[in-house]
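The data are quoted verbatim for reference:
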Amino acid sequence: WQRPIGLLVLMAIAMPLAFSTWAALLNNFVIEVADFDGSDIGLLHTVREIPGFMAFAVIFVIIVIREQVLGLLSLMLLGAATAVTAWFPTLGGILMVTLLSSIGFHYYETVNQSLQLQWLKKDRAPQMLGWLTAVGSASTLVIYVLIVMTWETLGLSFNFVFMFSGALTLGLAAFALIA
């Protein structure tokens, strides 16, 4: 279980737990709780894309930190930022949390793709990449179904769902880093 494929599968499960929850709930949260209007949402999505444009900077970071460690730290940042999203129901707070989660997401995705291409054997890479994508998609489907089935039934709050999914991602990434 401590092989590269195991780590890639664990990361493929962990990332959508935080990101898909954030993506599914964010628009409702910022409208219902933070009172965003159209221009605020536009600003939010502008800030969200800044780390994507800056993802090339990961090259400078991997000079000092191994790719595997950077990927897991980035995944932990994504999880932590998702977990605290509901704690900052103001424009400035949500912009800051969004920036942090986007840095985590974009650096994770950059390093994750690099690790996949390094660790997978060429003859099995297409099949394994498909399986990893399927695992991530299944993780996304599970989180969406759980939100839909439990939101009203259990009277969940934005805070609980953001905290739960973010903490789960953070915990899985921390486990992978230690194990």
Notes: Helices lie at 4-32, 38-53, 58-61, 67-83, 91-119, 125-150, 158-178. Residues 4-32 form the longest helix (29 residues).
